[in-house]
UniProtKB/TrEMBL annotation:
It holds the Pfam family S-methyl_trans. It comes from Rhizobium anhuiense. This is Homocysteine S-methyltransferase. PROSITE patterns: HCY. Zn(2+) binds at residues 209, 285-286. The lineage of its organism: Bacteria, Pseudomonadati, Pseudomonadota, Alphaproteobacteria, Hyphomicrobiales. It comes from the Bacteria. Binds 1 zinc ion per subunit.
Length: 302
């Protein structure tokens, strides 16, 4: 487990914990507008907890959250601010290297693969890539629900010269938790997504914003595909702490309650199972805070 890299955790609940106001539809983008110092503080706390990669707070900087007009008028400046805050926090660390991952979210809504618009997606991704580019070390297409979203990210960053990671959100209903074949929220299989990743040039293939119970099977499936195809691609996991089923609701249409049973100790036990299955990049998503990351570092890097 000594080769495991530790990611950060979920931004939004940490913003709330430190006093930022979050409300729909802007959600975490509101903190960039009203409280950028708190965004920087969240990055700093994750780094202090042991994160080796911090992710830009650009997830909600899409028309789905801030509106079409604001995206074109204010979006570029907000995106640059998100990049700069993460970069400043990472560069302030003198004793170890901290990377900045540029978050490229699902443009047309989380958990909503049916809304994907291939004819328009590059218009928006281009703005994110152009304005985050000066600040990031790697690209992270995250919470993607279908392979076409990942392909769009690959195309968007192709000219940047920087490596990219792709992270899919998984079906995590009762059938999935009960042992069904691991699938994306689109219904596409993890095996097919992993096969796509081999041909994509992605450096890492991850799963995020799904319940921890479904992650091990997905990691095992991806590892099997990569062995079969003789591919050297890192596998990663950063699960959420959402309570109840999320498959029928968009991820950001309201504030999901978080689980009381998923404390730092419980989450670290899941993380050990992911590492044993082949994951080498591990962090947290919604509801997984700095305390969880601190425990991950102690558990996985001891």
């Amino acid at each position: 487990m000594s080769t495991t890299r530790i990611l950060d955790g979920g931004m939004s609940r940490e913003l709330l914990r430190l006093g930022a106001e979050l409300k729909q539809p802007e959600w975490s983008a509101l903190a960039l507008i009203n409280a950028p110092d708190i965004v920087r503080k969240v990055h700093q706390e994750f780094i202090a907890a042991g994160s080796e990669v911090v992710t830009t707070n650009s997830y909600a900087l899409v028309p789905f959250h801030i509106g079409e007009d604001r995206f074109w008028k204010e979006g570029p400046a907000l995106i640059r601010l998100a990049g700069r805050l993460a970069r400043e926090a990472a560069d302030a660390v003198s004793h170890r290297k901290v990377l900045v991952a540029g978050s490229l979210p699902p443009i047309f809504g989380s958990y909503e693969p049916q809304n994907f618009q291939p004819s328009r997606v590059q218009d928006y991704l281009e703005v994110l890539v152009e304005n985050l580019g000066p600040f990031v070390d790697i690209w992270l297409g995250e919470t993607l629900s279908l392979i076409a979203e990942a392909e769009a990210v690959r195309n968007a960053v192709a000219a940047s010269g920087k490596p990219f990671w792709i992270s899919f959100t998984l079906a995590d209903d009762e059938a999935a938790i009960g042992g069904g074949e691991p699938k994306l929220r689109s219904g596409e299989t993890v095996a097919d997504a992993a096969s796509w990743a081999v041909s994509s040039g992605a450096e890492a293939f991850l799963f995020n914003c799904s319940k921890p119970e479904v992650m091990q099977a997905a990691v095992e499936t991806a590892a099997r595909v990569f062995r079969t195809m003789d591919a050297s691609i890192e596998i990663g996991v950063y699960a959420n702490a959402f309570e109840g089923e999320t498959g029928e609701a968009a991820a950001n249409e309201g504030l999901h309650e978080t689980r009381n049973d998923l404390n730092d100790d419980a989450y670290s036990r899941y993380a050990c199972s992911w590492a044993e299955a082949g994951a080498t990049i591990i962090g947290g998503c919604c509801g997984i805070g700095a305390a969880h990351i601190h425990r991950l570092k102690k558990t996985l890097l001891s």
